[in-house]
Write a structure and sequence with these properties.
Length: about 500
């Protein structure tokens, strides 16, 4: 079944990558969810499968988002739901357990599908009241079947690892009761099997990711027309997130990072509350979550609208590194070649600027260890897969590229004010410390990260976030055109309506 599913997905994928119009968005069909469930159970064989969705929020006015693995297998977007699949002799019977309709409660929460609604909208699943979940689960386990669980488990390494004192989740507590009532049942954490399926994106998933990237790029372009000295970081955050929602985004894909001046050198800065000053750079890592899928885009721009010579020099080093990585993206190439090429470009560029002694130079760290000088300015990975989660899983990781891989490339250089403090004042570091002391004042508080999103195609790649200006001259031109909010993109709005009937 897995082989058939992958062949069919590949055929559709080739057509989508060749002909998908801009902003075209595919709603994931119920048939695709059914195929995912079949591939999941086929990967483990006969048994009982319990997949727990995200519970109701503590208060009904708090934000709520479906558990990614549950969403991947069902597409069901209401809290408090669970799925049982009984696989016997290679055939599946699925039951979706949901809270029953309660008109009085719906005054607070909004209308819910209820059991009858599930039966109408999910023809491949049997709708059941969630109050019967324990009884039904105990019943199907009586025959001695293995239990495979997909849930939010606190126990690292699996569902049955003793001795772990991590905070226990509601799913842990529910499973405690299951194990107590069914002591002969073997329980296995099957989340990894779902993640393996998620690593291969379907045509519909790629279309959603493309739209997420396009909306996110639109927000990055929009804020360029507003940035000016004296503004607060949160004003730019608010404008970007407004643009996400105005064009159909569900929410930010992660906590927006908007850091100016010294904050531009903090990788996951998220206070977003400093007033920006002329002569600084602004590092913006912001993207939307659309139809369940998250983009991830970063741009770094001059607050004043014009890069200084030093800012442009650092920016060009980072851009050269990103483009060096891009050149390695083609089917059959090893994914590690991206990192090798980007790192080589960063080493060469920072040596040219005088921040490194040589491309392979090291310094003596605590304990006499030799550490790369590059690590003082570049201390994170080159990128990651994107998907249902902003840091997702993909088949290229640790291997080679093939059409349909989707990921980010995000090199960076961060010249922090305390850089010299990180190099121990010992004889072996004397020359390098003197060099840094002379060079750091030119570049201090310049933090540059450039991040784009990519889909591998048969002939190379598509940079799906390309609508966000990336070249320094293009950024300066856009920033010179200050204006009010741009018109809403009607194609984006139409796509939003199609995936939310």
């Amino acid at each position: 079944m897995i082989v058939v599913l992958r062949r069919a997905a590949t055929a559709v994928l080739v057509a989508v990558l060749a002909a998908a119009p801009k902003a075209a968005t595919a709603q994931i069909a119920e048939s695709e969810y059914a195929a995912r469930r079949a591939a999941f159970t086929a990967s483990l064989g006969d048994g009982v499968y319990l997949i727990l969705g995200a519970p109701d929020p503590r208060q009904d006015y708090e934000p709520w988002w479906q558990a990614p693995n549950f969403r991947y297998l069902t597409g069901f977007l209401e809290p408090g739901a669970s799925l049982i699949i009984v696989r016997k002799d290679g055939k599946d019977a699925g039951m979706l357990f949901v809270p029953p309709r309660d008109p009085a409660q719906e005054v607070w929460t909004g209308e819910r599908l209820g059991v009858e609604g599930v039966r109408r909208s999910r023809p491949t699943l049997e709708g059941r009241a969630v109050g019967t979940l324990r009884t039904v689960l105990d019943s199907v386990l009586k025959a001695g079947a293995a239990l495979y669980v997909v849930a939010d488990l606190s126990r690292g390494g699996g569902a049955d690892v003793p001795g772990n004192r991590a905070p226990r989740t509601p799913d842990d507590q529910f499973l405690d009761g299951v194990k107590e009532r069914n002591r002969e049942t073997k329980l296995t954490d099957a989340s990894r099997n779902v993640m393996q399926l998620r690593a291969k994106k379907s045509a519909a998933e790629l279309a959603l990711l493309k739209t997420a990237a396009q909306i996110s790029a639109k927000a990055h372009e929009e804020v360029l027309h507003a940035i000016a000295p004296g503004m607060n970081e949160f004003e730019i955050q608010a404008l970007a997130e407004y643009t996400f929602r105005r064009n159909g985004g569900d929410r930010p894909g992660y906590g927006s990072i908007v850091g100016s001046g010294p904050n531009s050198t903090t990788l996951h800065y998220n206070r977003d509350d400093r007033f920006m000053r002329s002569g600084e750079v602004l590092n913006m890592d912001m993207a939307t979550y659309y139809g369940g899928y998250s983009a991830d885009i970063t741009r770094t721009v001059p607050v004043s609208g014009k890069f200084s010579a030093e800012q442009r020099a650092i920016y060009q080093v980072v851009l050269d590194a990103q483009m060096a990585a891009e050149r390695q993206v083609k089917p059959g190439n090893a994914s590690r070649a991206m990192n090798d090429s980007a790192t080589a470009a960063l080493r060469a560029g920072l040596t040219r600027l005088g921040l490194l002694e040589s491309a392979d130079a090291t310094y003596e760290a605590a304990g006499g260890r030799r550490v790369s000088q590059l690590s003082l300015f570049y201390m994170h990975g080159l990128g990651h897969p994107i998907g249902l989660e902003v840091h997702d899983i993909d088949t290229y990781a640790g291997g080679s590229f093939s059409p349909g891989n989707v990921f980010s490339i995000e090199p960076g250089v961060y010249v922090r004010a305390n850089t010299l403090d990180l190099v121990p004042d010992v004889a072996a570091n004397k020359a390098y410390r003197e060099k840094l002391a002379a060079m750091l004042p030119k570049y201090v508080n310049i933090g540059v990260r450039i991040e784009d999103n990519y889909i591998v195609t048969a002939g190379g790649f598509e940079r799906i976030s390309a609508d966000a200006p990336r070249e320094p001259d293009a950024i300066e031109r856009a920033m010179a055109q200050r204006r009010g909010p741009a018109a809403r993109d009607s194609a984006m709005v139409e796509a939003y309506r199609r995936i939310r009937p």
